[in-house]
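Re: iron/sulfur cluster structure - here you go.
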Amino acid sequence: MSLLTIDDLVVEHRSPGRPVVRAVAGVSLDVRAGEVVGLVGESGCGKSTLARAVCGLNPITSGGISFEGHAVTPLGLRRRRLTGIQMVFQDPYASLNPRRRVGDQIADGLRTSGDTATRPADLLERVGLPREFAGRHPHEFSGGQRQRIAIARALAARPRLLIGDEPISALDASAQAQVATLMRDLAVESGAGLLFISHDLSVVRLIADRIAVMYLGRIVEAGDTAEVWANPRHPYTRALLGAIPAPDGLGVLPAELPGDVPDPADPPSGCRFHPRCPHVMDVCRVEDPVFGPVSCWLHADGIPSAPPEAGRPGTA
Ligand code: SF4
């Protein structure tokens, strides 16, 4: 059964005198208990806006988000602790209170969950840190250690859904895979779901059961991680995977793909990827391929409504 259901979600950013930015433009996704879903895409594609909406930190424009069958509505940080959803943020330096001992910060989560049996030091041990660290302050730790502390604090609230919003991007390469694997192990072990957001495909491949690839506010391809990795079908996914150095599988998204990066406030007509796509056809410039699991006219077989004939594969 689905723990989190995101249904045709739209999130727009509005500021006076500026064009509306549709950061999330009709995304549907679900996460089941005990499952790890990796959400990948370039910076600015809407991943973090989506994560914040799931936590109730961003108001939604249309569509819906439900967690354990209940609609998620915008919440303050204090009430968010009670929802069963916890988020680990990108910047471990900013997400911990520098003036409080880490044990006290972890104890806040234990109080929220009503857990009187677990000590903050127990959770530090679970994330691979010495128990005596509970008495220290955040500035005494490295980036990787702080992110482990942030994970311990999130786990203290006993979340049923853990969201990692680029939780490894500020870490050294050596700490990235360790922290990602730790998040996966702890989430799965406790029966929680994990939505892991990253621009690093190689790490997502290591930990995710399923993968969703996001481009300019839309999910363009989704599926079982091993299948997507072995047989990427959307040209954007292929470009991302193709940029990873072989044969060791290590690497991250390229800083730039060919073509211009579109302005999210003025997205291209038709397929949003068409100005950068090496396979663009006439239909791509006018008709939006909004079907799944691969949103691309090259993979339109079997969709219920026929696209325009002009420029479709096999019709030229
Ligand atoms: Fe490329 Fe067309 Fe597919 Fe878009 S719909 S990814 S432009 S082939």
